[in-house]
């Protein structure tokens, strides 16, 4: 077994994801099977391989195309706030964060 | 029903045989008749479409030059932001989300005269290969309504195949443009990573996500690519590499080009009907005077495993933003953390939650090296396979999908089996190279097969040229 029920509970906690008992067991089983399949990567010796985080060549990366840090007005603040479930312009309101 | 093409519309407008307004009306009529069955559009934007059509008609009336997509009715996948048009990503968590701005690709299409008809259904956050992961129900394949259209851009492929749009935008992370293109029988292209701006594309896996076109013929794909490709200051990963004149490039002869056939893409697991059509497709290139060469791409078999590490890891990070605070739905609760958990638990569908759990796991302390780092290293080996192949050949030919469109519900119970549907497409996604799927006959005259052509990074012109030659030589009916 690659992944335990406790692992799934821990990971769901890290991801702020509420899962039902049925989901926990179902995902554990399915992810276990996927991790089993992923295990085939161990057949490859990658000790001397550099990890690839992105595909662009050096002269095409973000670093090569950095712009001047100039302030540009966005002007969408009002419209963006309208999308919030509980806006209190100019703020987003959330449930209580700090217990007294 | 007229089979409109981009050039056909241009001619029709210029000769005043049709107006952009009439054309939009005709397509909304078709949508009203067929969409209830297909479920391919999630939202329509007639006000915006008609305003744009009127603008095009004024250009015609004033005898002014027409931009390249003047009056062309186009559909946009629902993971791409459209100002003022509800954009759900096929998810309940964004049910009422209305973006305050347009994606750069959408902005460029409209600036080129395109008429945006509406938004197309897709797997939730583009995660899926059958469109069955949409919170708004699956799309039906227009050529066989008991079958899936492929995914995740199932709606974008279905609307083009059914004549409910002349072209569409899809997104491709592991095959999500090319595979539905193949299963619905329309050309579908993913440009190189960095070729088309991702600004306004709602992120799934940022190192893999790409926007690209689906259309009824290769020339229209070239026209669409021409409009959307190129550097955008709002996407630091969009490159400054010059955009060639694709419409001129596709007319060049393909005689003498070297085409690689990788043995690893023709193993067990491929449907016999697909194999027959692909072999017939390869014969066409021989007749066109191309040099066919057997090549090896030894890490192909590791691509799905690598992809499902990297894509889920990036997804778990990107989807952290859906927390019930700034947009989308919120499940009420008395504390902030509990609100996050409940919102995400109730708002995301099964496949998305499965991938968040897997992605968080492969990134978590103690597993990062074994999974995520390992995945990044094997990704380098897969990219190296392509790099080496392109020192010997100009392009690589493979099937797009191992199977034709499968029956609705046939694969939903087993996620791993569903993932294997992307076995021929994820390789190019990981390597960042461009790929196209072009129609390559139909099994028993019914189920479409797609032939995939890969080119080297920023070799879109070569890919399009080979696709055009194939189409012109009757590839669609082999």
Shape of chain B: globular
Order of helices and strands of chain B: HHEHEHEHEHEEHHEHEHHHHEHHEEH
Low-confidence stretches of chain A: none
Report strand order across the widest sheet of chain B: 5-10-11-9-7-8
Task: Output the structural class of chain A.
Answer: mainly alpha
The number of helical runs of chain B is 16
Q: Looking across the biggest beta sheet of chain A, what order are the strands in?
A: 1-2
Outline of the structure:
With about 100 residues, chain A is mainly α.
What this model shows, in words?
The complex is a heterodimer of chains A (100) and B (478). Chain A has helices at residues 5-14, 21-38, 77-82; strands at residues 87-88, 91-92. With 100 residues, chain A is mainly α. In chain A, strands 1-2 form a two-stranded antiparallel ribbon. In chain B, the strands form 2 sheets. Chain B has a 6-stranded mixed β-sheet. In chain B, strands 1-3-2-4-6 form a 5-stranded mixed β-sheet, sandwiched between helices. The mean pLDDT of chain B is 97. The chains are: A mainly alpha (100), B alpha/beta (478). Chains A and B meet through helix 1 and helix 2 of A and helix 10, helix 11, helix 12, helix 13 and helix 14 of B.
List its salient traits.
heterodimer; A: 100 residues; mainly alpha; two-stranded antiparallel sheet; 3 helices; flat; B: 478 residues; alpha/beta; six-stranded mixed β-sheet; five-stranded mixed β-sheet; 11 strands; 39% helix; globular
């Amino acid at each position: 077994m690659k992944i335990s029920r406790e692992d799934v509970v821990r990971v769901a906690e890290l991801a702020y994801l509420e899962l039902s008992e049925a989901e926990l067991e179902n995902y554990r089983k399915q992810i276990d099977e996927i991790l089993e399949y992923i295990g085939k990567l161990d057949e490859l010796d990658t000790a001397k391989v550099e990890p690839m985080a992105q595909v662009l060549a050096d002269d095409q990366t973000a670093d090569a195309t950095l712009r001047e840090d100039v302030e540009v007005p966005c002007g969408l603040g009002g419209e963006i706030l309208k999308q919030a479930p509980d806006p209190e312009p100019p703020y987003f309101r959330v449930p209580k964060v700090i217990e007294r | 029903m007229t089979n409109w093409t981009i050039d056909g519309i241009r001619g029709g407008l210029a000769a005043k045989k049709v107006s952009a307004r009439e054309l939009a009306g005709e397509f909304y009529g078709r949508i009203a008749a067929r969409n209830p069955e297909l479920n391919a559009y999630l939202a329509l934007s007639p006000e915006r479409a008609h305003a744009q059509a009127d603008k095009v008609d004024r250009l015609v009336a004033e005898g002014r030059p027409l931009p390249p997509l003047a009056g062309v009715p186009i559909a946009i996948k629902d993971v791409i932001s459209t100002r003022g048009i509800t954009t759900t990503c096929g998810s309940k968590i964004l049910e009422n989300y209305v973006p305050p701005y347009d994606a750069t690709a959408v902005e460029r299409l409209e600036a080129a005269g395109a008429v945006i008809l509406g938004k197309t259904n897709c797997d939730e956050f583009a995660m899926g290969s059958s469109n069955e992961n949409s919170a708004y129900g699956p799309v039906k394949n227009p050529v066989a309504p008991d079958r899936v259209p492929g995914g995740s851009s199932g709606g974008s492929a279905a609307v083009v195949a059914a004549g409910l749009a002349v072209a569409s935008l899809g997104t491709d992370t592991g095959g999500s443009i090319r595979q539905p293109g193949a299963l619905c029988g329309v050309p579908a292209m993913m440009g190189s990573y960095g070729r088309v701006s991702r600004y306004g594309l709602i992120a799934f896996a940022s190192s893999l996500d790409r926007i690209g076109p689906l259309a009824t013929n290769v020339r229209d794909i070239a026209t669409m690519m021409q409009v959307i490709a190129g550097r955008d200051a709002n996407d630091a990963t969009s490159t400054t590499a010059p955009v060639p004149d694709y419409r001129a490039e596709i007319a060049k002869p393909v005689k003498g080009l070297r085409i690689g056939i990788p043995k690893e893409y023709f193993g067990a697991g491929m449907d016999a009907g697909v194999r027959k059509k692909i072999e017939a497709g390869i014969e066409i290139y021989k007749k066109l005077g191309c040099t066919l060469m057997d090549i090896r791409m030894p890490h192909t078999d590791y691509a799905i495993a690598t992809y499902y590490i990297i894509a889920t890891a990036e997804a778990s990070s990107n989807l952290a933003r859906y927390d019930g605070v700034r947009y989308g739905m919120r499940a009420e609760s008395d504390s902030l953390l509990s609100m996050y958990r409940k919102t995400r638990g109730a708002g995301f569908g099964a496949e998305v939650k499965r991938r968040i759990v897997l992605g968080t796991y492969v990134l978590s302390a103690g597993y990062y090296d074994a999974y995520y780092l390992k995945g990044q290293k094997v990704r380098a080996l897969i990219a190296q396979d392509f790099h080496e192949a392109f020192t010997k050949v100009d392009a690589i030919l493979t099937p797009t999908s191992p199977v034709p469109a499968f029956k609705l519900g046939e694969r939903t119970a087993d996620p791993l089996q569903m993932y294997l549907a992307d076995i021929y497409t994820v390789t190019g996604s990981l390597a960042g190279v461009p790929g196209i799927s072009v129609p390559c006959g139909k099994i028993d005259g019914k189920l479409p097969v797609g032939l995939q052509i890969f080119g080297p990074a920023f070799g879109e012109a070569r890919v399009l040229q080979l696709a055009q030659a194939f189409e012109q030589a009757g590839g669609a009916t082999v």
